[in-house]
Amino acid sequence: MFATQQTIVIKFIALSYCFGRVVGCVLLLVCLSFAGNSQLCSGSLGDPAVNITFGYGSNPGLPLPAATTNYKYAYDACPVNGFYSIVSSGVECNYGWHVLQSDHTGNPNGYFMLVDASFEPGDFYLDTVTSLCANTTYEFAAWMLNMKKITQGIRPDIDFSVETTNGVVLQKYNTGSIPVENEIKWRQYGFYFTTPPNISAVVLRMTNRAPGGGGNDLALDDITFRPCGPIINAGIANHSDTLDVCEGDSSSFTFTGDAAAAYLNPVYQWQVSTNVGTSWQDVAGANAATYVRIPTGVGTYLYRLAVSERNALTNIKCRTASHNLLVQVHASPIVNAGANRTIFAGDTLHLNATIQGERLTIVWSPAAGLSNAHIQSPVASPTANTTYTLFGQSIYGCKQQDVVDIKVVEGIFVPTAFTPNNDGLNDKWRIPFLDPILNATVYVFNRYGQIMYKTKGTTVEWDGSFRGLPQTSGNYIYLIKFTNGKKERKGTFMLLR
Length: 497
Prior knowledge:
Blueprint: H1 22-35, E1 44-45, E2 50-52, E3 72-73, E4 83-87, E5 112-116, E6 123-129, E7 137-146, E8 157-163, E9 169-177, E10 187-194, E11 202-208, E12 217-229, E13 232-236, E14 242-246, E15 253-259, E16 266-273, E17 281-282, E18 290-293, E19 299-309, E20 320-321, E21 325-330, E22 334-336, E23 341-344, E24 349-350, E25 354-356, E26 361-365, E27 379-380, E28 386-393, E29 399-409, E30 417-418, E31 429-430, E32 441-445, E33 451-456, E34 461-462, E35 465-466, E36 469-470, E37 474-481, E38 489-495
Parallel strand pairs: 3-4, 14-21, 23-29, 30-38
Antiparallel strand pairs: 1-12, 2-12, 4-5, 5-12, 6-11, 7-10, 7-12, 8-9, 8-11, 13-15, 15-18, 16-17, 16-19, 19-20, 19-21, 22-25, 24-27, 26-28, 28-29, 31-34, 32-33, 32-37, 35-36, 37-38
């Protein structure tokens, strides 16, 4: 990850950068001098030791702990001089301010700190960070926006300061006047510094330098303090940094990493995130510059290589990481060609398929007898018994298929007798080729004209009972009525016990 949002040329760099290796520091100084790069980390970052996102929710949010700011909380969401509020979006304070619809990440529910600066300098943010590593470079940064939409007025001017716990300033950085923007444009400000020997705790301070009144109003979001180290490269052998695979693919892939030579005694650890980088877990046993990924289930997986000096192995506040490698395991398409069907010779039917997946291409085979072999429910008019196969393939190459059998008959066969004696043979009166798609109504009458059985558009299966009572042996009358213009059929059959 490279942070180059600003173009303000850095005025100082700690000479002990790169974990005390002077050669690495000299090279970095030369690079920045020629590139005119920003004061933010130009190497690889680690997870934040401090990460103030202000949370998320509806307006307004809860106040900050009193020890973290000298400003007072505005409960009505529109602060005045010396006050702040925690809001998410859509707050119209009518001060000639921007109306923000989201925090700096674009989250419409994400909170940010809205400040109307005091007339006297005051601390926006104050925090103590402990368990740091000595001789390690860290980045202290925040995202800010001048809330004023007009050029007149006082512009915010912020000091970033890193101090010892007893008040000695280790390093400072000043944003200068934060510009007025016609459009909403968040900017990240900050700097990096190297902790001196024997220093494991520091105080972070963000202070307002400009006077309040007639301006000096700002939005503040995502304050971070995180390790900054040499560039760590990572990649997937013979692939780009984004890999799409299909569910059930047993292929393994080799991840490769390369930490800059600035590390004296590096320790490697591959990590994985299954929640889009919100949290990371160490991959057990993946402690080399290369890692062979084993197949996983469906999901989105981010991988990165974390590196630290061996003497800081257990302290995650000293560890930096490569950019992310993305592996997306896509589900196989869901393909169902539909239930097997029976039609009369010369008839047609719609194939009732269901198919789901990511931007699917579908093909029926054979195409003969179909109105269109590339749509989900074509009209089929086979002249003989046919098995149709439906193939589905996603844009990522994930495949699935299913078949449907279409039987073509000259007419239906109505059995003339059945024996419902529960011997497992011919226990029900069935009409085998009367497909439910014909939506036919079937009646069975006794000799007195009373309806013993009736069904419509379903499989015909009479067990010889009426209202749960077995009926006597004898002749019964059937009537079949069609809705597609076919002539109705009528006849008799025997029930034998």
